[in-house]
Specification:
By secondary structure, the protein is an alpha/beta fold. 27% of the residues lie in helices and 24% in strands. It has helices at 22-31, 51-67, 84-94, 109-119, 134-137, 156-162, 170-177, 211-221, 249-256, 269-278, 288-301, 320-330, 449-456, 493-500, 529-536; strands at residues 36-40, 46-50, 75-79, 99-102, 123-126, 146-149, 166-169, 191-196, 206-210, 234-237, 259-262, 283-285, 310-313, 333-339, 346-349, 369-374, 388-395, 416-424, 430-435, 440-442, 445-447, 462-472, 476-485, 512-515. Helix 1 packs parallel to helix 9 (249-256), helix 2 packs across helix 7 and helix 10 (269-278) crosses helix 11 (288-301). The longest helix has 17 residues, at 51-67. Residues 540-544 have low confidence and may be disordered.
Length: 544
């Protein structure tokens, strides 16, 4: 109770501070202005820019985009790699109240057309080497009014007026129309980014991020038990910026003043090794297939990466033997993580110095994320430890509804069905046990491909492995093993099947083995199971 005559406290005693994305680059420019974003262009040339200069350029780019007539809330698409120009577009769009819609360059033309039209994108920023895609896109995407070529001049064939939208070169647009623009000042629930799911399990669906969700996700990721980045780090982002906010790295690195290294489209072992060494990278982030290439390059030419301390991996399950190989060969700590586009994407991550979890664990959820295990009907398991269930997630940066859907994707308690199978040990460490949609039902019983893949991954001659289901008249489905050998190794079906003996039930052993020269990978670096099912799941057995 307040006594008569006493002054009541202010209803809002703290300063208003909207959780909006421009604050990350503003902070970096003021307090870590000399730290850099380093990028590799299509010709393998190195480009550098300080955060202080990037803040100025990104803000002037906002002014230029505004001069094109784009309105608050419009979607501006990017079709690009990890480059300086793409980084500038992240902030130029989001910080001014537009939605940055990152497009996956490896989607089919039909998928890109459908996604662009559903989003009603008003402008498209495209990498110079992806300009040829425009001839198939623009005639079928009538909402696009402006095209900006990010990393080079506008090709003459397009500049001559062969397409309807106005065309600009990125730097020319900045020079001619660039002007100081207002950033922020809008509600933190304002949409900031739009990313579509990978489409490996069905048509891509849109996930609309807000400034608040991205800001809180950044705080999740920066916790000491998560990415744990500081201003002493140089971070190489091998995860594409068109996928789930580039795992949040375009936000978290300037937030702490860490150097950020962007490899462009060059993810082969030799290019990444050179960047890791020359830029003295301390933390590298990407799916495990990327780092396999680095190890194989170092094995071939020799050398070490003395500055590299940690590698954060995610995506598909990585065999324990490969994690040990990375740690032994590179002298690093490998942090497993798990997440999904719908989670912005971080769900769990192993701590940088975790000594209480084995290599199969994807770690624990950071503060701001909660998880539970359910049965197939969505009922919470009575025992949430040491048992396998379907994983559901809840949090401030977890999706509620897919883009342009009126139906919530959450259960009655506000949890999202991730589609993953998982177990949680006594210490809270999460082990992903595979995708529920990947399970193979054979003779009325379930076979988990992830278990077979993990075991086969221990074989010294196996580089990558995947197990898919093939229709079978008698059993309904039977497993097929697809493997890519390590360089210089030969694999034979008999030895691989023998390797599984006594490690899985006899009826889990695949009926067929396909040895391929190169495993098909999705744009995110994960194994493309849809492609494998199309080629090997229908009874064909053509070895590549």
């Amino acid at each position: 109770m307040w006594r008569s005559g006493e002054q009541r406290p202010c209803l809002f005693p703290m300063q208003p501070y909207g959780l909006t994305i421009e604050k990350f680059l503003d902070h970096a420019a003021k307090w870590a202005g000399s730290r850099e974003v380093v990028s590799v262009d299509s010709r393998q040339a190195i480009q550098r820019a300080r955060y202080a200069d990037l803040r100025v350029r990104s803000n002037r780019l906002s002014g230029a985009l505004g001069a094109l007539g784009l309105e608050f809330g419009d979607r501006i698409a990017t079709l690009a790699w990890n480059t300086l120009h793409h980084f500038e577009f992240y902030y130029a769009t989001m910080a001014a109240g537009w939605v940055c819609h990152t497009l996956n360059p490896r989607y089919t033309l039909e998928q890109l057309v459908a996604i662009i039209n559903e989003a009603e994108d008003r402008a498209l920023a495209v990498a110079a080497d992806l300009v040829p895609l425009l001839s198939g896109l623009l005639p079928r995407c009538p909402t696009i009014r402006h095209v900006i070529v990010m990393d080079g001049a506008v090709p003459e064939s397009f500049a001559a007026g062969s397409v309807r939208p106005t065309l600009w070169a990125h730097d020319a647009l900045l020079e001619q129309l660039g002007a100081v623009a207002a950033w922020g000042g809008f509600p933190e629930e304002t949409p900031a980014g739009l990313c579509y799911t990978s489409g490996t399990m069905g048509p891509p669906k849109g996930v609309l991020y807000t400034h608040r969700s991205n800001y809180l996700h950044t705080l999740h990721a920066l916790q000491a038990s998560a990415f744990a980045l500081t201003d002493r780090d140089t971070v190489l982002a091998a995860v594409p910026m068109f996928h789930a906010n580039g795992w949040g790295l375009p936000f978290s690195t300037p937030a702490v003043g860490a150097n950020l290294v962007l490899p462009g489209p060059h993810l082969e072992g030799a290019s990444l090794t050179r960047l890791l060494r020359d830029e003295r990278v301390t933390v590298a982030v990407g799916v495990h297939t990327v780092w396999t290439g680095v190890i194989e390059h170092l094995d071939a030419v020799g050398g070490q990466l003395p500055d590299l301390k940690r590698i954060v991996i995610g995506g598909s399950q990585c065999p324990e033997v490969l994690i040990r190989r990375m740690e032994d060969r590179l002298g690093v700590r490998v942090q497993r993580s798990w997440g999904m586009t719908e989670m912005s994407p971080l769900g769990t991550i192993a701590a940088p110095d975790a000594g209480d979890s084995d290599a199969s664990s994807s770690g624990r959820p950071p503060l701001g994320v909660d998880l539970k295990l359910t049965d197939a009907n969505g009922n919470a398991l009575s025992n949430q430890r040491e048992t396998v269930g379907r994983l559901r997630a809840k949090g401030a940066s977890v999706l509620d509804k897919y883009y342009k859907s009126d139906v919530s994707a959450l259960d009655a308690e506000g949890y999202l069905d991730t589609g993953d199978l998982a177990s949680i040990d006594a210490r809270g460490n999460v082990v992903i046990r595979g995708r529920s949609k990947d399970l193979i039902k054979s003779g009325g019983e379930w076979i988990n491909p992830a278990t077979i893949e993990e075991i086969i991954g221990r074989h010294p001659g196996v580089g990558l492995a995947a197990v898919i289901g093939r229709p079978d008249e008698k059993w309904g489905e039977r497993p097929v093993l697809v493997v890519q050998p390590r360089p210089g190794r030969e694999l034979h079906a008999e030895e691989l099947l023998a390797f599984l003996e006594d490690k899985v039930a006899h009826w889990w052993i695949p009926d067929d083995v396909e040895v391929v020269r190169a495993m098909p990978l999705a744009a995110t670096g994960k194994i493309d199971r849809r492609s494998l099912r199309a080629k090997y799941g229908n009874g064909t057995s053509d070895v590549e």
